[in-house]
């Protein structure tokens, strides 16, 4: 549905986004994760058509965004980080204005406004001035204007930023409900939001896309933790004979009856068979096996490791140059 190809944005000599490529399919909730200043907002603005890329393209349902901007934006919902809502307007007047901007007219406009008011639970605030609303209600109004017209694609920049826990939970429920009939891409610097909501994560670092993984794949790891009283020399000799074991690292080598080893495998597949081989080798050599398990990765460790890999890659390129 959404295809991003070689996307780039420069501000003078500064490259904010460099050669970003990804595809998002119908019905996915995708999280764009990165530190503040990583390039997330710049990407979101280009995806929504409010910022033109210096290079590359965005296509939605095989239609180029820049060449068909008005047509596509009518079927696109956008919640920017700082929504330009007018503080002197009432909520109902603002939604009426937003519907006009999307070309929603007549009886359909009234039906749509009624629908988004119910979905975002803002009926009690319809006649209130926007300037009097809490941060949470302003975000709800922002979502309401974004989902007017039942857009096929919803782009949300930091949707839970500044919300209290109760407001955050309501926003999550709202995003899940919207995802029943729309593809959602949201940006955030908060890992818990991606873990709570998303099917897939894209990690941005220094304007580059460095990770594109499904959340279901995230916990898959090619690292096994082993606790045994087999000495390091024998662990290295015996276990490296297993073809899939690439690296062995001692986690603690204290004066204890057993050491903990970290085994890095060449693949995350067939781990049960590999663990069975490891257990057989240790027990057949008359050593004790205290623990043997796959190390589960979380989003934080993936974020950290990916960022470190990017730094190391740049250092290697600098050294070569």
Automatic annotation (TrEMBL):
Entry-linked SUPFAM superfamilies: P-loop containing nucleoside triphosphate hydrolases
Descriptive protein name: ABC transporter ATP-binding protein
Ranges where the ABC transporter domain occurs: 2-231
CDD domains xref list: ABC_DR_subfamily_A (cd03230)
InterPro entries in alphabetical order: AAA+_ATPase (IPR003593), ABC_transporter-like_ATP-bd (IPR003439), P-loop_NTPase (IPR027417)
Superkingdom to which the source organism belongs: Bacteria
Keyword terms of this UniProt record: ATP-binding, Nucleotide-binding, Transport
Similarity section: Belongs to the ABC transporter superfamily.
Gene3D superfamilies for this protein: P-loop containing nucleotide triphosphate hydrolases
Entry's Gene Ontology molecular function annotations: ATP binding; ATP hydrolysis activity
Species the sequence originates in: Aliikangiella coralliicola
